[in-house]
């Protein structure tokens, strides 16, 4: 695990965007795994800036998002589909047929999850997966559990996660209680992983992810077993390391 601690959120976002941009420059048809939440917003803004200044071209890039709320359709302002358009896709020259986000309105979840996995495989696997991390150690929406859930699946969100994500909704009651998420194996199969975290409220989680035992009770701890992980933290998130 390569750990980079930077001064602040702005530098974190620039570093992360530069890593993703290099990946795209070296392999224009890269398959990139994307995340939502507040952490990657600055990274997406920086990627848009790099695109607008002519430094990167997304025309051949293929993307797969980690997760989507179950029950929300793509036009819902709280959906991750909406989020991705708002912060990234509507500002760059990505080919829409190369964009993949789990379908929050899938009628048959089992088939939808299997199809998502098949599409990732058909695309050649994920070259680099961008991750945030929940305070409870979740990656994607793989919540603390007794076992690692392997592949894309339907998740019951933790109380903690519902509470944390309620900041994006009018009230906690509006937060969906379930989501579709890539599984731990899906994430671990990515060739490279780039995890970002900022803020002192995540410092203990980060400490345990890096130094603690590998356990599904802290899903991100499994990243200790991945051969190519880069973690970028601001001073707060890295303060216990
Ligand atoms: C989002 C995702 C989640 C978030 C995590 C951190 O697609 O998969 O694991 O990365 O909940 O969220 P923020 O960045 O809002 O602290």
Explain how this protein is built.
There is one protein chain. The chain is α/β, with parallel strands linked by helices. The protein has one domain (2-234): Rossmann fold, CATH 3.40.50. The chain contains seven helices and ten strands. The chain has helices spanning 9-26, 41-52, 80-87, 109-122, 159-165, 184-188, 203-211, and strands at residues 2-6, 31-34, 62-65, 67-69, 99-100, 128-131, 153-156, 178-181, 192-197, 229-234. A seven-stranded parallel beta sheet has the order 1-10-9-6-2-3-5, with helices on one face. A three-stranded antiparallel beta sheet has the order 4-8-7, with helices on one face. The chain starts with a strand and ends in a 7-residue tail after the last strand. The model has no long low-confidence stretch (mean pLDDT 96). The structure holds fructose -6-phosphate (F6R). The site of fructose -6-phosphate (F6R) has 14 residues, from loops. Fructose -6-phosphate is lined by residues 35-39, 66-67, 132-134, 138-141.
